[in-house]
Amino acid sequence: MSSIPLTHILFLSTALFFIGMYGLFTRRNLISMLMSIELILNSVNINFVAFNKYLYADKLDGIFFAIFIIAIAAAEAAVAIAIIINLYRSHRSIDVEDATEMRY
């Protein structure tokens, strides 16, 4: 059985990272920005798992870091969605530019 080359995995990870960065810098919707951050975190997870497999196959350090990042991303998503829902309830908008003009 053939294995996928490391360069292909790194290309996929780089593509996901830059798609996430593009989405983070160009979108004005908070939900889209949150999804872009999740793409960036997933690209980091792919890097950890790939380098763990190809460089340190006998260790599980990369896998543990990936699981830790998944747990942090889940907590971050829960808190961010709660903040977005609260912002929408109070101002009827989740647009980032509208949020900068809002005064409490």
Brief summary:
The chain has helices at residues 6-26, 30-55, 61-91, 96-101. The chain is mainly α and 104 residues long. The radius of gyration is 17 Å and the shape is elongated.
Largest sheet: none
Number of domains: 1
CATH-derived topology = Helix Hairpins
Number of helices: 4
**What portion of the residues fall into strands of 2 or more residues?**
under 5%
| Class per helix and strand makeup | mainly alpha
> Unreliable stretches, pLDDT < 50, 5 or more residues?
none
End-to-end Cα distance, whole Å, is: 61 Å
**Average pLDDT across residues?**
87
**Could you tell me the radius of gyration in angstroms?**
17 Å
Count of β-strands: 0
CATH class identity: Mainly Alpha
User: Which architecture does the CATH hierarchy give at level 2?
Assistant: Orthogonal Bundle
Q: What's the helix-strand series?
A: HHHH
Helix content: over 70%
**CA-based shape:** elongated
Structure overview:
The chain has helices at residues 6-26, 30-55, 61-91, 96-101. The protein is built from four helices and no strands. The protein is elongated and about 55 Å long. 7% of the residues are buried. The model has no long low-confidence stretch (mean pLDDT 87). The chain has a single domain (6-101), classed as Helix Hairpins, CATH 1.10.287.3510. It is an all-alpha fold and 104 residues long.
Secondary structure layout:
Layout: H1 6-26, H2 30-55, H3 61-91, H4 96-101
